[in-house]
Amino acid sequence: MPEQVTIRPVREDDLPLLRTLTQDPRATGEFEQYGWYAPRLFQRDWEDNGLIGADGGNLMVVRGDEVLGAVSWRRRHTAPASHCWVLGIGLFPRARGHGYGTQAHRLLVDYLFAHTTVHRIEAATETGNIAEHKALERAGFSREGVLRGTRWRGGSWRDEVLYSILRTDPSADPR
After folding, report:
1. What's the CA dihedral at 90, 55, 127, 157 to 10 degrees?
2. Residue 57 half-sphere exposure toward CB, CA atoms < 13 A
């Protein structure tokens, strides 16, 4: 069992880490390198709302005082009167392969089900990202299918696998 991780709100001194995690090719990993974009994005949103708002947010993944990465969620409307959350995660290379991603997904699911009325949480990852497939499944997500040609990265369209967890799923019960 890996050491326990926690999630916490983003602090201002975390902003450079978020930029590195989302834009530096040495940190993003093979499946999350989308090029350079909006260098002040996190700064502006942190000043506005601390990176937690009605339509989504970001939290840091930590083990003790060590920042391992970040998780995020954003609103996706599913009908005029309903929505689900779509999750994202990024871990620094040193934190990958230790089970921290599974824990972080689980913590964010528990947090969102405890503090919002949403019934469905989704996550998607490229078909080749087997480590993320396993992390989502270990966190209680169900594989729903392949979405063809939905992600533009590295000069070509990529397929992704869609996962979900529902508030009523047995795996959604907080541990």
Report:
1. -110
2. 20
**pLDDT per position as a tens digit, 99-138:** 999 999 999 999 999 999 999 999 999 999 999 999 999 9
The residues of the chain scoring below 70 in pLDDT are: 1-2, 32-39, 174-175
Q: pTM, whole model, 2 decimals?
A: 0.91
Instruction: Give residue for tokens 């541990």.
Output: 175
3-state SS of the chain is: CCCCCEEEECCHHHHHHHHHHHHCHHHHCCCCCCCCCCCCHHHHHHHHHCCEECCEEEEEEEECCEEEEEEEEEEEEEECCEEEEEEEEEECHHHCCCCHHHHHHHHHHHHHHHHCCCCEEEEEEECCCHHHHHHHHHCCCEEEEEEEEEEEECCEEEEEEEEEEECCCHHHCCC
Residue 18's contacts (CB-CB under 8 Å, 6 or more residues apart) are 10, 42, 58, 70
The tokens for 39 are: 């260098």
Report the length, in residues, of the chain: 175
Tell how far CA 91 is from the center of its chain.
9
